[in-house]
Specification:
5-stranded mixed beta sheet; elongated; 9 helices; alpha+beta; single chain; 7-stranded antiparallel beta sheet
Length: about 325
């Protein structure tokens, strides 16, 4: 017991001396010998870089591979936030990470440890005897990376704090609630509530959520075509700039309760070119005899959109009525 406490204390001291992790939160460094990497490269990219629907298909994560046995740039690359090291337990790059884990790992095996070569870092260790043995582990690797990225995203999202006063006020006076960061501001027109965050400037990024409702609840929930019609009418009447729905990539799914439609929007041909993804939901609230309609849209040209879509989805998930 004393030995374990001593080891823990040593690791804490060493951790304090580590440099801060660098690189984007959605960048994944893969350390693996070249001869093992090349035969499975495409399959690793497919599983760890899934596409998401924005204006075009966008990679949620970006992989950069390097052969750690070559030294050189590995010294810097291994300090990124998300690192996947692959090899046998006695390969130096795997062995160093396992030392922080503190226990042996049999092949094929996967474990995630913190702060191996830098602070605020997650290193995913895959011990394999054959490179093909990595493939069954990739779904779990992706899940761990995605969970960590979502925690990072929500932490950044709520840096300003949660606007609980607004949520309580909306629930008490209007009948629904949303949990929003304090940086959002809202306006109301004809029972259409718009919540907007255009920091740092509207030309760089806009995140907006709109909530309204119809009474009484219809006999059937809106289908895909009706969701497009509802959004088109809403945008035409209440959005400051016209938005048309693009359906080259779309998702329509049932919720419990309600339905959701995801696609992209763009400005009309005669307007300033702009576009982005959106999520629309129709949610019945029988206690109020209301069918709520929620629309969340993003404008963020020239930047990755996965982080901001997670933010908008999180706000929509916080919706409550009745």
């Amino acid at each position: 017991m004393v030995r374990r406490l001593t080891l823990l204390a040593l690791l804490l001291v060493v951790g304090c001396d580590l440099p801060q992790a660098h690189g984007d939160a959605n960048a994944i460094i893969v350390g693996m010998v070249e001869d093992d990497w090349l035969p499975i490269e495409d399959r690793v990219h497919d599983q760890l870089e899934p596409t998401i629907q924005t204006v075009t298909d966008e990679r949620a994560y970006r992989i950069q591979w390097y052969d750690p046995s070559q030294g050189g740039r590995w010294t810097d690359l291994r300090k990124f936030r998300q690192v996947l090291v692959v090899g046998s337990a006695d390969d130096p790059w795997v062995e160093q990470a396992l030392e922080v884990h503190g226990e042996p790992l049999a092949a094929p095996g996967l474990v995630t440890v913190r702060n191996v070569w830098s602070r605020d870092q997650h290193v995913h260790i895959a011990v394999v005897d054959d490179p093909e043995d990595l493939l069954p582990l990739l779904d779990e690797v992706h899940q761990r990376i995605d969970e960590q990225f979502r925690r990072h995203t929500l932490s950044r999202m709520f840096t300003s704090g949660r606007d609980t006063i607004l949520a309580d006020s909306l629930r008490r006076e209007v009948g629904f609630a949303l949990t929003l960061p304090n940086v959002y501001r809202y306006s109301v027109q004809d029972s259409v509530f718009r919540f907007r965050n255009d920091n740092p400037t509207p030309s760089e990024r806009i995140r907006e959520i709109v909530v309204t409702w119809r009474t009484p609840i219809p006999d059937t929930l809106p289908d895909r075509d009706r969701m497009i019609e509802l959004r088109t009418d809403l945008a035409a009447e209440y959005y400051p700039q016209a938005q048309q729905v693009l359906t080259h990539v779309e998702v329509f799914r049932e919720l419990d309760p309600g339905v959701e439609f995801q696609a992209s929007w763009s400005s009309p041909e005669d307007a300033w070119p702009a576009g982005g993804p959106f999520i629309s939901r129709a949610i019945p609230c029988p206690d109020q005899d209301r069918l709520y309609y929620l629309d969340a849209w993003l404008y963020s040209p020239g930047t990755g959109k996965y982080e901001y879509m997670i933010q908008l989805q999180t706000i929509l998930d916080s919706f409550a009525c009745g």
